[in-house]
TrEMBL record:
Subunit annotation: Monomer.
Every ATP-grasp domain range: 111-331
Binding-site residues, Mg(2+) 2: D292, N294
Binding annotation for 1D-myo-inositol 1,3,4-trisphosphate: K15, K56, H162, N294, G298
Keyword terms: ATP-binding, Isomerase, Kinase, Magnesium, Metal-binding, Nucleotide-binding, Transferase
Gene Ontology process terms (BP): inositol trisphosphate metabolic process
Name listed for the protein in its UniProt record: Inositol-tetrakisphosphate 1-kinase
InterPro entries: ATP-grasp (IPR011761), Inositol_tetrakis-P_1-kinase (IPR008656), InsP(3)kin_ATP-grasp (IPR040464), ITPK1_N (IPR041429)
Length: 358
């Protein structure tokens, strides 16, 4: 058996290549950890023990959400394994991840619990029906005006999860593909801020995004069909990102302290260590709108991502050891007080107290 801390991971080949995952092996090694790939399709018990489990299982979750029995079986097997080994540090909790697979649920949490000055999440509704009359009345009730963005309900798992539309008028409602979420369009001067979070640390990058749309656009424009990659990749050059001359002076830079507050709130709310947030700054109010929260985003632009990750893991494992010690001390105190109650100390308890005090 190995006396090193074992970090098990299950990350797709594509993501591993993108991250240059081999570097992580040597960083783990130099920090006293052993990195080991996990095969989630076979028995986990025989591959263990693991002290830490890092995974990107979002696609499996999305497939399970869409009814895939094999994906459901894998997830329930992993869940069961974690239940049998509550000492494993899981990055990140399956229950917390599940929420973010569904855009409606994650927006709902944001809307209910965000409560930060100058930060909001745009109005949204879930579109379930194909009836324009029903949908129009729901949009009105929620106070969502045209244009709005229509996003698939399931946020991960296929290319279709990122196929979206900007809908400008009632006629465009025919383009919605339920189940989806309609989210108010926020004018933000074509700049998106992507926040990459690793525990308490974060890194922000600026990306292109949609130009501002005004009332008159709603009468002249037809639905814009797009994939998020077409608009917001660092090299995206969409015609929809070109700002008009008058809008350029409206651009403002984000305040670090507000981004810090957003990061703290998001990690607390969703209970995740590896998470990304997409933020835009509304042009006429200067308020920060959270438009998307992503599980284990692409950290390729994050400086020293692996070093930061291992620092977090070390912190968590020290915290865990301390809390285990606490519970041992607590148990010891309890034993001692039980002894006082019972008036004698068993050999077993003596042994235990010696072990704990080492
Ligand atoms: N409410 C919004 N208002 C304005 N633009 C938006 C809004 N929501 C999304 N966008 C634009 O659409 C892109 C994709 O939306 P997002 O929810 O981030 O999808 P994905 O999950 O595919 O990243 C964003 O990067 C941004 O450019
Ligand atoms: Mg996004």
């Amino acid at each position: 058996m190995c006396d090193k801390y074992v970090i098990g991971y299950s990350i797709s080949e594509k993501k591993r290549q993108k991250f240059n995952w081999n570097d992580f092996y040597s960083i783990c090694e130099s920090e006293g950890f052993l990195l080991k790939m996990i095969d989630i399709n076979s028995d986990l018990e025989s591959q263990g023990p693991f002290h830490v489990f890092i995974h990107k299982l979002t696609d499996k979750f999305a497939h399970a959400e869409n009814g895939d029995q094999n994906a459901k079986a894998i997830i329930s097997r992993i869940n069961e394994y974690f239940c049998q080994h509550p000492e494993i540090i899981v990055i990140d909790s399956l229950d917390n991840i599940k929420i973010l697979i569904n855009r409606y649920k994650s927006y709902e949490i944001l809307q209910e619990h965000l409560q930060l000055n100058d930060v909001f999440t745009p109005r949204f509704i879930e579109i379930k029906s194909k009836s324009n009359i029903d949908n129009m009345s729901m949009l009105k009730m929620a106070g969502i005006k045209f244009p709005f963005i229509c996003k698939p309900l399931v946020a991960q798992g296929s290319n279709d999860a990122h196929k979206m539309m900007v809908i400008f008028n009632e006629q465009g409602l025919n383009d919605c593909l339920p189940p989806c979420v309609a989210q108010e369009f926020i004018n933000h001067n074509a700049i998106l801020y992507k926040i990459y979070i690793v525990g308490e640390h974060f890194h922000v990058v600026e990306r292109p995004s949609f130009k501002n749309f005004y009332e008159e656009d709603c009468t002249i424009l037809n639905t814009i069909f797009f994939r998020s990659h077409d608009i917001s990749k660092s090299d995206s050059r969409s015609k929809w990102s070109i700002l008009s001359e008058e809008d350029i002076p409206l651009t403002v830079k984000p305040k670090h302290e507000i981004l810090e507050k957003i990061v703290k709130k998001i990690t607390e709310l969703f209970g995740l260590l590896l998470v990304g947030v997409d933020v835009v700054i509304e042009n006429h109010t200067g308020k920060y709108a959270i438009i998307d929260v992503n599980i284990f985003p692409g950290y390729d632009s994050y400086p020293n991502f692996f070093e930061q990750l291992i620092t977090c893991i070390k912190k968590l494992s020290i915290g865990q050891k301390k809390s285990q010690q606490h519970s041992k001390i607590y148990m010891l105190k309890k034993c001692l007080s039980d002894d006082l109650d019972s008036g004698f100390e068993s050999d077993e308890k003596k042994k235990y107290s010696i072990k704990t005090n080492k």
